[in-house]
Each structure stands twice: as structure tokens, then as C-alpha cells.
Structures
1.
Amino acid sequence: MSAVAAPLPQTPVSMRDAILDAAEARFAGAGFDGVSVREIAADAGLKNQASLYHHFPGGKQAIYAAVLARGIDAITELVAASERAGSLRGDPAAASPYLDGVFDVLIARPHLARLMHRAALDDSPYARDAMPRMLQPLYALGVRILQDAGGPWQPSELPHLAAALYHLIFGYFADASLLQALLPEDPRSAPAVARQRLFIRKAVALLIGAAAPVAAPGTMLGAGKESHRA
Amino acid sequence: MSAVAAPLPQTPVSMRDAILDAAEARFAGAGFDGVSVREIAADAGLKNQASLYHHFPGGKQAIYAAVLARGIDAITELVAASERAGSLRGDPAAASPYLDGVFDVLIARPHLARLMHRAALDDSPYARDAMPRMLQPLYALGVRILQDAGGPWQPSELPHLAAALYHLIFGYFADASLLQALLPEDPRSAPAVARQRLFIRKAVALLIGAAAPVAAPGTMLGAGKESHRA
DNA sequence: TTGACAAACAAACGTTTGTTTGAGTACGAT
DNA sequence: ATCGTACTCAAACAAACGTTTGTTTGTCAA
């Protein structure tokens, strides 16, 4: 689909990437304090944790910072690319490029949503000042896009709307392993993800004020997999 | 407002409650692995961490379990009380009692949202099987309420809607300390909370189909329930 | 006073943590 | 061959971790 959302290479090209991949999975699953550098080293294929300090002299915190920056940049550049393509310019019904792009990247990199959700909850001295700095461009971008969309919201409500959309889209993937135990179906399975994609489209259309999404012929809402009948 | 949402007593009546209060604040702020039993003991007024094991022989994990159960039960009983009062019975526009009740309890206990958000992300062997067990009643309750409300959603979409509403309502308070650095205003201040309360009311009204403020009269989305395949 | 019990204390347990040191290996350039 | 660089490794470090042990204090009943 979208060539922008490039998944991680199955085989990391460098040891630095292998370390970042291993750290991303571990940090997303257990958080900064729940991961030991020995685990990261072992997952990356190193037999000794001391080798990590050659690639990241800053130690564990530097690895964490690099993982976070890489993940947030991926999302930010994706949204920025959709905006440069001219999506959602005064037309609230055309939010699909943004949603599909984010969806694709969250599916391709299954640890990203949980990693960012965790980092948002963190209040360590480092995350407290690094997270806002890394998220500022993405946040400003989102508010500007919602501003141009022209929904039924006042300017003072746009920050609330931006935060709500973030929680709406990322929350499903971040809490997938918990939802798996609550729902009758694995939320990461193909049909569940497809259903969530349609759900988000409808929910976002309702929220940002797409007056009649199904009125326009060929739009995404009416023609889903739900029309499948035996 | 709602007398149901009773805040924690300012002065804990027992040492056990003092430990739980201290642990709730610490666990919400730094997570299970980011908190030491020495910190909890000190915050609870104990000069020695060994005293914790007298009140909680199960150690750190038992304290964590008790904190989680207390928090989840508070939310569950609140929603159950609203349901017994007969709110939202076939009338999607009457969701305010639920929203205001949850809002009041999340304001009165500022660590609850972050604590639950963190626990949802956890995948330790304990949380992996305890969280679903503790959340099952609340989840079933939420889905049943949404079912009775009769919104524009199909039954297969109700789990997605329930999860979305949870993320929508709890996410704002859970990420408050991050939003504080991104927004021009403290999200926990009185005007910001009031604005968020109105925002959530409007958003929920849009999502569960309360009179469809901008939608054309004809139930564009809700038409596809049974009569769709006529 | 005596016995009993809950509660808080000090000290130490063994383990794991992040990090550092120094020696060793592979390899292209000189 | 020899140097220099990039990289990995084993071993060890101090600090912090959760937990246990043994003792002391306070309190109520007999």
C-alpha cells in the first residue's frame, strides 16, 4: 500500500540496528526499568553486554533515547508526508490517508504503539524533558491539520481533539495484549485489525464532522468488508 | 455532584491504607519496576522497609495487586451504580451520569488513570493473568451498557467502541503530565478539566449517536443493522 | 507482673543492576 | 610484516534491589 511506511528490515544491516530493534521490542514490552542491558545484548546477538557500550557510549539511556527518537520520527514523517500530499485540506471526509498510513506503520512495527504509550506515561527526569521535545513537531502538525480540516470544534478544543485522536488510534495497538485476554478474538488478527480500521474511520468521521461520509459515492465507509454476504 | 465518587481520606486510617496510598502514587508514576519497596515504606511513614512485609506478606507483588484491585474496583462499582440508577437505557443522549461519575473519580484520585494505563501495558507473568480477571466485570458491564444504548454500531463493533471510549476518557488523565509540557495550559487545571469534560460529552454524543447533531435525519450509519439487507 | 501478640525496628542476606576495565580478534591500509 | 581501527569478549566493580532474620517496642488480657 503506502510506500512511505517502510517496515523494519527483517535482518538488521548493522549491529547498531540490531541493538535498536532488540531494545525497541524489550522496552515496549517491559518498560525502561523492566529491561536489563544483558537482555538487549543477548537479543541483538551479542554474548556480552559490554559490547553495547561501544555502539552506545551513553549506555542504557542512550539506547532508550535512540529507540524513542526513531519511533517518533517514523510517525512524524509519515503524517508530514500525508500533509504534503494535500490530504484533508478543508475536507473532513478525506482523513483516510492519515489513518491508513498510521495504521500501516503500527501494524508493520507492532511495538511502536506500546513503546510510545509507555514513554508518554514515563516521568523519569530524562523522559520528562525529552518526550515533549520529540513530540512537539508531531503535535503541532496534528493541531494544524485539524485546524485546516474545519470540523465542529472551536480552536480551544483542538488540543483536546488531537489528544483524543491519538489515544483512539494508538490505544488499540498499545493495549492489544490486554485486549487479547478480554476479547473473544485476537485484536492483532487480520479480521480484527480490518474491523478496527473501519471503526476508526467511522469514529474519526463522526468526530471531525464529516457530515455525510456515505453520501459521496465510492467513499470508504459504505463499501467495506461488511457488505460481504453469503 | 455525585456522592458516589468518594475521594481517598486525606489521612489514612490504618497503616495498611497508608501503604496502599503511597504505593498507588509511586506505581502510577514510575511503574512496578521503577519503584522500590524502600520508597513505598518511606512514603507511608515507615523507617524500615521490613515493616511492609508484616502488612503484606506477599511482598512487593502483593502490594501491587492490592493497589490495582482497589483502583479497578472503584471504577467498576461506580459504573455499576450508574447502571443500577437506570442511566442510558435506550437513550444515547443520557450518557452524562457515567461520564461525570468517572470524571469525578479520576479527578479525586489523580493517580488512578495512570495506574490503570500502566497496568494495561504490563506483560509480567502476574499482570498477564490478573489484569483480565480484574477487568472482566468492568468490560462486560461496559459492553452491555453500550448494547442497551443502541447506537449506530453493529454488535461486532461494540468491543472496539468500548475500548475506544476507555482510551478516550482515561487517556487524557493518564497522559496529563506529558500534555502539560505540550499544551499552553496545565491539563489538570480547573478550566482545562472543565473543557475536557465538555469535549468528552460532545465526543461521546457523536460516537454513540446522540441525535446526530450534524448528521442528516435518516440514520445514515445506523441503517445497516437489520434492514440493510432488505 | 506475666504472657501473648501485633507492629516497627536494624542489619544483613544473596542476587541483579548498569557500567568499567583490559585483553583479545579480525581486517584493510601502509 | 606492521600499524591502526573497529569490534567483541570475560571479568569485575559498586550500588541497588527484594527479601529474610532476629530483636525491640507498645498494648491489652489474665
Note: Chain B touches chain A through 55 residues (CB under 8 Å).
2.
Amino acid sequence: MDTDPKKTENIENITKIATFNTNSIRSRLHIILPWLIEKNVDALCLQEIKVENKNFPLSEFENIGYKAYFSGMKSYNGVAIIAKEAMEDIRVGLEDQENSPEDSARLISGIYKGIQIINCYVPQGKEIENPSYQYKLNWFTRLGALLNAKFKNNLPVLLCGDLNVAPEWEDVYEPEKLADHVCFHIDVRNAFKSIIELGLIDLFRKFHPNEKQYTFFDYRTPWLLKKNKGWRIDHILVTPELAEKSIFCEIDMEPRFKEKPSDHTFLVGGFGG
DNA sequence: ATGGTCGACTCTCGA
């Protein structure tokens, strides 16, 4: 089977679903819009759109033939799904009794062509001793409950987004030095693992078992990008029936080298009929 | 390589 996405881009009946942390959608339109057109992606899940709903750049996406579903707030967080076809059952937040406005700006879900998509921006956590880290760990527990509820609908599930966890040693550039980082600490890695163990497959690792490719490079130390020292914290996780239909899963670094890039990259999964 | 760079929006916070 041909697993090179460059050769499969124009083949019909492949469904392409992608994720991208924008770090402000309005500042990244010059990257997102051409990329959507070039890659012919079916559904693009965005995080950190950093815009209130009333200011969401909806017409920019409608002008190129896409629909947009979004849940934002002022300045921080915010998630959206840009989709070619209309989606069903759009919901926001963790759908539990604790759900806060911030939670609603961190998760948006919906059904795209029979696939239950869950798009998340998991809290970063700040520092191990910060209450924000407990909020992050608890967020994974709540996400697990949401997942189990979605599983009951018997649709294939695709959970993606900036999950703010590098799950394994090969997912971060200096694992031996980062044991106390909130995106690599053992407790958050176990929280990630507990989500996986509910019945999801890490799609990038299915196709690239050992490669040191990353989805995030810190702006603050520019040489890290040049040296390929980053983090694999953006993920596409799928249920087994979707994993079996998958054709490729690739990190697209190219937009990272354009003017005014995000600090994250695109991650794309392709699925056959 | 222990600092540095972004974005939103007031001015400092979050990443």
C-alpha cells in the first residue's frame, strides 16, 4: 500500500482529518487558508484560536467552500472545526456537571461523515506545584468519561488536538531533563495512557514507530526548531476500526517555515473507504 | 545553549 501522502493527495474517497494549534486563528489565516486548499483536507481541527465567537473569521472559510464550527473566548484558548461538509451533533465542553466556560472553549465535538470527532485543547498546566496542573490531570479524567459516553453511540471516534502531553521518551527532545515538566511528568503521561487504554490508537505512531518528529517547537529558543528539538504533543487518536482504514498520518513541517508561523505544526491523518 | 519570542490587549499573562 502506498503510504506517501504526497501521492495520495488527489485520490478521491480519502478522508483527510487534520489538527493544528493556531496560536491565534486571525494571525494564521495566511497559513491556514492556502493549506486547506492545497491539501484538500476534509476536516481541520483548530486550537488556541484566541477569539470570541462574534469575531470569528467565518467568511474567510466560507469563501473557500468550508463550514466552520467554533467555541471561543477572549484572548485565550478557543477551538474550531473547519469542515467541507456539514457536521452533525456539534457540542462544546466536557458535557459534565463541572463544565466551565473555559472548558467550553477547550473542546468541540461533532460528527463528520459518520466519524465522531472530538477536538481538544487540553490545559497546559503551568507547573507541577500549580493548581492548574491538577486541573489538567482532572481534565483527562473528565475527558475519559466523555469518551466512554461517545463510545456508546457505536460510531468510530477520532480524538485530536493539542493534548499537551508527550506520551513517551521519544516524543520529546531531552526526556532526561524534562521529568518535572507539566507536559512530560509521569502523572500526565499516565493520564494520557489511561485515555489510550479506553480504546484508542496513536495514529502517528502506527505509521512512524520510532521517528523523532515533533509538532511543537518553543518560539523562545529559535535554534530548537533548526535542531529539530521539539515536542510531540499534538495527536490524532482513533478507535480500531478507523485505524484499520487509515492510510497515512503525517506531520507537515512546511508551514512552520513560512512568515509568522504558529509554534505548532499541522498533523494530518488519511482514511480510506 | 537556563535565555529567549510570540499574541492579545493593556500591561501583563499564558505558552
Note: Residues 67 and 86 of chain A are 7 Å apart (CA to CA).
